[in-house]
Structures are given as C-alpha cells and as structure tokens.
Hints:
Its main location: membrane. One of its GO terms (molecular function) is extracellularly ATP-gated monoatomic cation channel activity. Receptor for ATP that acts as a ligand-gated ion channel. It comes from Ursus maritimus (Polar bear). The protein is an alpha+beta fold. The chain has helices spanning 2-12, 26-50, 86-89, 211-216, 232-238, 243-249; strands at 61-69, 72-76, 80-84, 104-117, 143-151, 157-165, 186-195, 200-203, 229-231, 251-262, 272-278, 293-298, 308-311, 319-323, 326-330, 350-353, 396-402. The termini are far apart. Residues 301-322, 328-394 and 396-411 have low confidence and may be disordered. It is elongated, with a radius of gyration of 34 Å.
Amino acid sequence: xxxxxxxxxxxxxxxxxxxxxxxxxxxxxxxxxxxxxxxxxxxxxxxxxxxxxxxxxxxxxxxxxxxxxxxxxxxxxxxxxxxxxxxxxxxxxxxxxxxxxxxxxxxxxxxxxxxxxxxxxxxxxxxxxxxxxxxxxxxxxxxxxxxxxxxxxxxxxxxxxxxxxxxxxxxxxxxxxxxxxxxxxxxxxxxxxxxxxxxxxxxxxxxxxxxxxxxxxxxxxxxxxxxxxxxxxxxxxxxxxxxxxxxxxxxxxxxxxxxxxxxxxxxxxxxxxxxxxxxxxxxxxxxxxxxxxxxxxxxxxxxxxxxxxxxxxxxxxxxxxxxxxxxxxxxxxxxxxxxxxxxxxxxxxxxxxxxxxxxxxxxxxxxxxxxxxxxxxxxxxxxxxxxxxxxxxxxxxxxxxxxxxxxxxxx
Length: 411
C-alpha cells in the first residue's frame, strides 16, 4: 500500500520538460521561419480572408418582375396607320418566367379555311394532277394536298392544299424591322431577394432611389449603375450586338443580376450588379434557322363583338431577354449563397374564335383547351347566357412575330 501511494505521489508532483537544442544556423533558421510564414499565410489569407471559412452561408430566395413601356406608330399599305403600345407588342400580357416583345412580323391577311395553291418550291411545283399525291403533307407544308394541280399565278402551277388560305409566304422578312423603334422601349426590372437563415431581404430599387429619379433614369454602367430601368437597345449593345440586326429575325438576351453581399459589413454595401449577354448562339458562318419566332392567329374585334382568346399550337421569329440573378451573401457567422437560375422559355400564341350565337346575346368568352373543341366545328366559344356551340367561317389575320424579351425568374 505504501508503494502505491509513493508511486501516485511521484506522478502527481513531478514536472518534466523536453530539452531544447538551440541551433545557430542561417539555413535552418530561414527554413523554419519560411514554414511558419506559409502556415500563417494559408490560415489567415486563404481560410479567413479569401474563402471566409469562419462564415456561414445560405441560399437565396428571389423573385423578378418586369414592366415594359414605349409607344410607336406605323403606316403601311397592309395595316394602314396604327399606334403600337404595350398592349399590342407584349404578347401575351402576362407570361410565366418570360416577357415577349414583338419587333418584326410577317402578315398574311384575311385567311380562311379552304383550298388554295401551295407556295412553289421543288416539291410543290407541278404540271398535272399526276404530280400531286392526295393526302400528303411535307414537313414544311402549309396544308394537306388534295391531289389537284392548280395555277399559283399566270405561269406557275402548284399542288392544291386544304389549309388556311392564302398560305403564308415567309420568304421575305421585313428589313428593317417592322417595329424598329422598339430599340428605345424601356424595361423596368424589379428584383427582390431574401436569405431566410439570416432573415435578410433587399431589392434592386435601393432605398436612396426616389420617385422622381425613377421616372427619369435609364441604366448606364458609369453614370446610373443602379437604375432598374433598361433601354432595350442598350441591353443588346452591352452584350456586343446590334439591336436593329437582332430585331429582324429575333433573339434571346439574358440580364444577369449579381448580388455579392458580405454582412460583416453594412447592408448598404449589398448592391446589385447587372451584366448582359446574348443567349441564343449566333454563328455567322453557320447561321441556319437564326433568331426566335412564332406564328399568331389574330381576329380583330369588330362592331363590339366579343372574341375568345384560346392559346393553341405555337410555331415559333422574337428578341428575348433573360433575367439570370445570382446571389452571394456572407455574414459573421456568415452566409454566402451561390445559386444560378435556368431559362425556361415557353410561348402562348393566341387564337381567336368568333361564335355567331354571341351576336344576339351578351357573351363572355371562356378559355378552353384545343382538345375541348368538338370535331367539325371551326369556331367555338362558351357564352354566359347558355351553353352553345356554333359552326361558322373563321376569318382573320395570321401574323408571324419576330423578337421577344424574355424574363427568367429567380427561384
């Protein structure tokens, strides 16, 4: 027992230290200090300063909304004198994740369903009915062949088709663009961000922006870098392209909103940065099927008659802009959110159907899907007074649009 107590006392009340050997050598001393400096530089410079390893991060939650403004006039032999405002060139008025602005169009007036000659090309030009196959329809056909060879003009015959007549001729795209004045239209972008872990929120309309300033400012990277109103021509120019060239056949533009926020500092330094790029690839040497477009069937309202808007069968010519916001925020213990946002493009062309029943009674159009239209009916509308289906002759104007403005939401 006494031996155990002696051993325990020796363990508790002893202190030992390693022997330190002092080596006086410049080479060994410099090597030692160099290793210490490298470790110190890595910990302070890389881990703390550059990577901010002591901070927490969070993903951004965000929303983007846009509002276009601008008015212009045209005077053509086809449409006559016409004023164009937002209600005319933003199609449709509201669209998820995108904004389409028309800048150019090919118009086919007064089309009706019937029989007419197809546009002449190497597959449709004929000399007799034997050259036309009834029921055939090629990839680029405007209708279904009837098997007859008919006159297209005084010298050329083509195969007859059952189609919307007259068929569309898109071989001549208007140059310059029909709405070339769209270069000076403006776009207000509202971007709201929120980092839920730190309950930090902000928007791109900064606290120091007044109503007076917002009514007069236009974004400029040097003079007005935080103005949320953009001129369409400037957006394309900042991406290195010509608006007037793009407006002819359409294109897709991206607006990137980058938030790089460090909440170790004051929130007033958390500011949006804008950049622009063209999203559709444009190769001058391989420019097959350029631009962005769709077809649109339009029946004007006449004599106060209501008409139905029914989204149907898009065929895509537009200019597009995308909003691609990115979030980066940091706080001590901080958050740094990195998130990129993809583009989802969709288009809702509009078809209008007129129902003769509604000429006698009040009618409030109701949207229906293409699959709900009964077979054999050329026109369809649902009236509020009673359910009614009526066949009639559709007549309207098909328009092919070129150029959209595409908004891509942050989510």
